[in-house]
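Anyone up for a design puzzle?
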């Protein structure tokens, strides 16, 4: 019996060999350097590793695919900052092993699906296009031309362009992303779901509504000059390690750091800068001046308590709020204050799970300072009330006038290295009309203005057979999305699933009737085209656009760039009916940038501006107090306390990243800072909660979530006792995505609520 799509979608439930120790308080340091070197030497040859290490995040080098944290403006030309997880990310991509026809002849799709994600990732770089015919057990090689024709035939056979889904992950460069969305729009749909839908969509929604731009407002320089930086729902020590260097600088300049997180994450507590030999010897900087061990999803409650206390002081003594700013630049203040007064400070504080002593400490820091920056990531965006979380933080900044001035503002810390750029150049299922009009003017076709599918809608549509072709530009859809079993059925219902990828992943194994794997060049590789070696560009978390150029020879001769793949598919699909000369772009990416310059705001003279060593800043209204909202002002908003409650025996679970993974790519099996080694199937639990359930360390449990009467299960996890607030627990994504209900997502943003899944834990006897 062959394995079903649902079985293939699940990660194997077997155990490795768990060892757990006390978590670390210090991050980076010597161990980090040793780990990075170990990773590189296992999977790459030394000459390549050296070449990469000297070119990462530098002028003329390539942009680290690890995260979207910016490089210092003035220092991009100096030696790249050391980052353990950046090095792991490039070692993963620049592996010297490749897989092609022989590999797929040897291993059936069923067999590969029984491998762990770690093993799948370590099989090597994809080396040639592969095709899985209907009912076949093995992928077989296919030429690029045949593959493009195959995609074109399937797309053209659809009754309606809206029956196709075009996903994007966030590593795709501006050039490839622009062409991809252009093709999709000319094909006739705006079904452009992307990883952002599962990531910072809630930030985009909240910030657009309140401040008129879906991106953060601060620069790196602001961060250095802030008096207070809040790091909320983010684990920079693992996911944005270079941010710690910036926070260290903030502190050196006298700024204070407040960390708000259910877990005392190592990087937030203490950091040993690997760039500083003295720090390596003396043991590092304490990063957080105050640590707030908040209960999962307690953020609106906590910040409401802060707002209430600020109001109390303002009414008692005045001079707390920035009244001049509020009067000149904001809208909705009175309604906001009236609403705020309906809440009770003590009740809010209780709901947040934070002690009075810690509350007071944080409150004083906020009260006494006016240059405040708030940084956040997935701990805020992956809840049903995610948009409220962020709007409430904006309320705080508005009251303090902490926006659009030096050392103050919003800092949503992006995930994928070009997720922000992809959205800027048009990967958007609900792009603004002004952008669509520009496309019409430039190319002479009318893009549909019907909103397309976001990730959640796309899954539903495929499940209901309303969408029949899935194309993924990067990413690992099945492992990244919620509700694994439902989503596996959705993909299986498709006629064709296509993935443009660098590495093998589970999405290549959970397929439609037919499937294609189209292997592409990665960031680290040179991109040779007719007009010579190509440069591409990306946008970092702070809106700086700069170049990226690979330094290694491609790992196989049979790879195409993402740009070339898009041109090939577009040409094969649209043929003579296209108004765009698709094939010219792949020969010379300057032509793509000339088009972007005409269509996308802020990119005038794109090719010329890119020549500046540190790149260029895109326009940002919030940064200069020009709020392009519907009211023309920065908007205060009213946000409710979340209403959910736990039933007896339930815990609220957040699905988080270990130190050894990049999203669904598993670098290794350790989570060093949290003291977990050699195992991913674990659940971090509060020790009191363990006791209540008669659970001991390393006991094996099964997890169940119930949502609207539907029960979802994930089996075989080992319990690890941890400093996590009562009634809260944590597991790793993607192993527990099977428990995340598809219908549980952020209001207005549709970000899956993968940080607040209600579960029960059952001991396996
Ligand atoms: N090495 C590495 N780097 C990465 C990634 C990776 O997987 N590996 N992924 C990239 C991507 S795409 C992204 S989006 C980012 C992700 O970066 P993060 O958002 O830092 O990643 P998560 O592991 O999801 O961590 C969320 C943090 O929020 C906390 N948290 C969870 N729920 C709550 C809550 O309700 N309130 C508060 N205040 N905190 C909460 C968790 O304890 C955890 O510390 O990193 C990017 N960089
Ligand atoms: N439960 C739960 N689910 C989550 C999250 C969570 O915190 N909890 N986080 C969500 C978030 S924030 C995100 S961003 C998504 C991530 O979702 P995705 O972006 O879909 O997933 P990744 O794991 O980053 O994708 C990895 C794959 O991308 C391909 N790849 C790598 N580099 C390149 C490249 O340069 N070009 C191309 N074409 N392909 C490349 C490789 O084949 C690799 O296997 O997951 C989301 N899912
Ligand atoms: Mo992300």
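Challenge accepted. My sequence:
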């Amino acid at each position: 019996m062959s394995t079903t799509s649902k079985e293939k979608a699940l990660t194997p439930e077997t155990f490795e060999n768990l060892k757990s120790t006390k978590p670390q308080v210090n991050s980076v340091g010597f161990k980090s350097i040793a780990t990075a070197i170990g990773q590189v030497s296992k999977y790459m040859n030394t000459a390549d590793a050296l070449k990469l290490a000297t070119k990462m995040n530098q002028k003329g080098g390539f942009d680290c695919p690890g995260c979207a944290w910016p490089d210092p403006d003035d220092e991009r030309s100096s030696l790249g900052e050391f980052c353990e997880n950046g090095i792991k990310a490039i070692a993963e991509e620049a592996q010297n092993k490749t897989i092609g026809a022989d590999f797929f002849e040897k291993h059936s799709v069923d067999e590969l699906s029984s491998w762990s994600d770690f093993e799948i990732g370590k099989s090597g770089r994809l080396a040639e296009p592969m095709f899985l015919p209907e009912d076949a057990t093995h992928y077989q090689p296919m030429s690029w031309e045949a593959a493009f024709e195959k995609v074109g035939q399937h797309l053209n056979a659809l009754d309606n362009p809206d029956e196709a889904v075009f996903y994007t992950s966030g590593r795709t460069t501006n050039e490839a992303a622009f062409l991809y969305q252009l093709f999709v729009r000319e094909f006739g749909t705006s079904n452009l779901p992307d990883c952002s839908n599962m990531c910072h969509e809630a930030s985009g929604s909240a910030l657009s509504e309140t401040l008129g731009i879906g991106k953060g407002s601060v620069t790196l320089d602001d961060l250095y000059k802030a008096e207070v930086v809040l790091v909320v729902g983010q684990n920079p020590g693992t996911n944005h390690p270079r941010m710690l260097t910036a926070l260290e600088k903030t502190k050196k300049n006298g700024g204070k750091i407040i960390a708000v997180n259910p877990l005392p994450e190592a990087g937030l507590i203490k950091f040993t800068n690997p760039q500083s030999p003295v720090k390596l010897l003396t043991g590092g900087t304490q990063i957080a001046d105050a640590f707030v061990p908040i209960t999962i999803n307690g953020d609106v409650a906590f910040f409401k308590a802060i707002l209430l206390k600020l109001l109390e002081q303002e009414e008692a003594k005045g001079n707390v709020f920035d009244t001049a700013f509020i009067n000149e630049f904001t809208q909705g203040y009175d309604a906001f204050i009236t609403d705020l007064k309906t809440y009770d400070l003590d009740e809010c504080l209780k709901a947040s799970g934070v002690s009075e002593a810690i509350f007071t400490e944080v409150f004083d820091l906020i009260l006494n300072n006016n240059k405040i920056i708030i940084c956040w990531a997935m701990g805020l965006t992956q809840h049903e009330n995610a948009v409220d979380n962020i709007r409430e933080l904006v309320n705080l900044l508005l009251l303090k006038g902490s926006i659009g001035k030096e050392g103050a503002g919003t800092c949503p810390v992006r995930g994928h290295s070009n997720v922000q750029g992809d959205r800027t150049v048009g990967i958007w299922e609900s792009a603004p009309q002004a952008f669509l009009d520009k496309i019409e003017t430039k190319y002479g076709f009318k893009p549909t203005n019907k909103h397309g599918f976001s990730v959640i809608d796309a899954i539903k549509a495929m499940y209901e057979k309303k969408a029949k072709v899935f194309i993924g530009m990067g990413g690992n859809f099945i492992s990244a999305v919620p509700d694994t079993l439902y989503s596996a059925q959705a993909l299986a219902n498709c006629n064709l699933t296509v993935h443009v990828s660098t590495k093998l992943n589970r999405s290549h194994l959970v397929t439609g009737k037919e499937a294609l794997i189209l292997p592409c060049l990665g960031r680290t590789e040179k991109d040779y085209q007719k007009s010579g070696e190509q440069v591409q560009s990306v946008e970092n978390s702070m809106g700086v656009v700069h170049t990226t150029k690979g330094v290694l020879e491609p790992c196989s001769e049979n790879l195409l760039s993402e740009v070339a793949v898009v041109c090939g598919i577009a040409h094969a699909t649209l043929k003579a009916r296209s108004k765009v000369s698709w094939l010219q772009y792949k020969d010379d990416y300057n032509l793509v940038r000339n088009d972007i310059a005409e269509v996308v705001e802020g990119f005038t003279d794109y090719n010329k501006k890119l020549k500046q060593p540190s790149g260029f800043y895109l326009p940002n209204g919030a940064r200069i107090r020009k709020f392009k909202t519907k009211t023309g002002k920065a908007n205060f908003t009213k946000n409710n306390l979340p209403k959910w409650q736990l039933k007896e025996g339930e815990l609220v679970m957040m699905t988080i990243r270990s130190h050894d993974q990049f999203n669904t790519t598993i670098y290794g099996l350790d989570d060093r800072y949290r003291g977990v080694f050699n195992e991913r199937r674990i659940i971090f639990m509060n020790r009191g909660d363990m006791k209540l359930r008669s659970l001991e360390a390393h006991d094996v449990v099964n997890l169940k979530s119930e949502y609207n009467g539907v029960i979802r299960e994930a089996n075989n996890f080992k319990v690890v006792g941890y400093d996590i607030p009562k009634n809260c627990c944590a597991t790793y994504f993607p192993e527990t995505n099977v428990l995340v209900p598809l219908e549980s997502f952020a209001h207005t943003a549709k970000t899956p609520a993968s940080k607040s899944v209600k579960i029960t834990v059952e001991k396996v006897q």
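A detail worth pointing out: Residues 169-171, 195, 198-199, 378, 382, 415-416, 473-477, 480, 500-503, 505, 520, 522-523, 562, 655, 663-665, 733, 737, 740, 754 surround MGD (ligand 2) (CB under 6 Å).
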